[in-house]
Amino acid sequence: MAMYQKMGLRQSMELRMTPQLQQAIKLLQLSRLELEKAIQKEIEENPVLEEVVDQQGDDPAKNMETDSAAPPESGDVQDPRKQDEFEWENFVESQYKPPSGTGMNTDEIMNYENVITSKQTLYDHLMWQLNLNGFNDEEFKLASILISYIDDEGYIKTPLEQIAEEEGVDAKELEEILPFVQEFDPAGIGARTLQECLLIQARHLQEDTNDLVQIITNHIKDLEKKNYDRVAKEMNVPLEQVIDLCKIITDMDPKPGRAFSTQEVQYVTPDVYVYKVADEYAISLNEDGLPRLRVSNLYKNILSGKDNNMTQDYIKEKLKSAVWLIKSIHQRQRTIYKVTEAIVKYQREFFDKGAAFIRPMILRDIANDVGIHESTVSRVTTNKYVHSPQGIFELKYFFNSGVSKTNGDSLASESVKLKIKDLIGKENPKKPLSDQEIVNMLKADGIQIARRTVAKYRDALGVLPSSRRKKMF
Questions:
Q1: CA dist., res. 113 & res. 31, Å (int)
Q2: What is d(CA 362, CA 396) in angstroms, rounded to the nearest whole number?
Q3: Same-domain status, 181 and 75
Q4: Assign residue 190 a region: left if phi > 0, alpha if psi is -120 to 50, beta otherwise?
Q5: What is the pTM of this model?
Q6: Residues 73-116: pLDDT tens digits?
Q7: β pairing state of 266-268 and 272-277
Q8: CA distances from 400 to 413, 416, 433, 467 (A)
Q9: Are residues 11 and 147 in the same domain?
Q10: Contact 270/288 with Cβ under 8 angstroms?
Q11: Alpha carbon of 24 to those of 10, 19, 179: distances in Å?
């Protein structure tokens, strides 16, 4: 494939992506519950890390007073709006506490009514991304066909030629659109083989060097058998480099669709709060349940002593891992904050007036505003929830395509869905509105929409066709 050839041309012998960046990407896509478990696991496995026990209790107001009096280095870590302009030597000396942004007491609104459930399929997640990527009608059709053939593990196991025959489309066109689908989150999605899945993830991680491509393409079986010596000999590279490459591959997910395959109902709480303060909105990250981390003084003292080199090397490695974790958590929190901040700015009318005033917004809008990649926006808005004056919403809820209006403006698809729901709610049950009648009524309201789009929105709302809504009483 051309993709493999392109990857193979990269001749860099260095591993460009730091483990810290890999870890940051992983933590970014975790839900709150998953993040808490990941942090707890690291605390248990890394003796250099320790959790700070708050001696003042759980009063956020007191905590904010203490935080504001912290040294400048610590303050930089705690404020997600600050840039990454701090010295790591100082950072290691400080402790980590997830940034909050405001001192408001979240206990006032943390009750059982605010706990909602989340259950989304892989298909839904991929179609959400497809709707936001600006494909033309033909490209959209081809991409949606491919998505429909992706199984629960994230693979397309049906040959493209067979798909083309079954769907009445051109196999070459499917081949051309497939790389675009493979850019979607989760990384590795839409692959046809394990090697292709890993190569896609390598590209997402910017790790697709010539050596990594070669080891994935030709030596996966050897890696499974831990036959590293043979791989090193055949590739003519040092054994240590093969082991480093293997670590990168081990961190990849061979079945990227599994995260969406669970049928259990997941209970989620908000990751971030949006408050109305006077005429402005304040943003506060939910830090409840996230441990405050710092590097243990005991191990820092050991490093400054004269213990044997083996002990020193072990502690240095664990220290490096601890620092990476702390910065990765900081980066995750800071990114959630900045993305939420951009969403609030862009969707101001929604937060002021409600769902009927949501604006059309795509991933690129927020990516450009924050200065990050669209795939990062996708990761940070999936399974992350915001508590707002209008209710609790998944951050990805605010991204939706636009529907044209006769005056040249566009209306968010979510707003159109609400209008359709309202029209159906007011219909005569003995003579329910057909999809075409809804089209005509929306057109009279200045909204240009096709009948098939009305049908799609109606299905998304869980509303039956008019023939099945008719009541005879």
A1: 20
A2: 10
A3: no
A4: left
A5: 0.54
A6: 333 333 444 433 333 334 333 433 444 444 444 333 333 334 44
A7: unpaired
A8: 6, 11, 25, 29
A9: yes
A10: no
A11: 24, 9, 25
- The boundaries of the domain holding residue 335 are 31-103+268-284+293-370
Residue 205 sits in the same domain as residue 127: yes
End-to-end Cα distance, the chain: 63
pLDDT in tens, 212-258: 888 898 888 888 778 888 889 999 989 988 888 888 888 888 889 88
3-state secondary structure the chain: CHHHHHHHCCCCCCCCCCHHHHHHHHHHCCCHHHHHHHHHHHHHHCCCEEECCCCCCCCHHHHHHHHHCCCHHHHHHHCCCCCCCCCHHHHHHCCECCCCCCCCCHHHCCCHHHCEEECCCHHHHHHHHHHCCCCCHHHHHHHHHHHHCECCCCEECCCHHHHHHHHCCCHHHHHHHHHHHCCCCCCCCCECCHHHHHHHHHHHCCCCCHHHHHHHHHCHHHHHCCCHHHHHHHHCCCHHHHHHHHHHHHCCCCCHHHHHCCCCCEEECCCEEEEEECCEEEEEECCCCCCCEEECHHHHHHHHCCCCHHHHHHHHHHHHHHHHHHHHHHHHHHHHHHHHHHHHHHCHHHHHHCHHHCCCECHHHHHHHHCCCHHHHHHHHCCCEEEECCEEEEHHHHCECEEEECCCCEEEHHHHHHHHHHHHHCCECCECCCHHHHHHHHHHCCECCCHHHHHHHHHHCCCCCHHHHCCCC
| Domain end residue (candidates: 354, 370, 386) | 370
- Torsional sign, CA 32, 33, 34, 39: positive
What mean pLDDT value characterizes the chain? 77
Q: What's the one-letter identity of residue 347?
A: Q
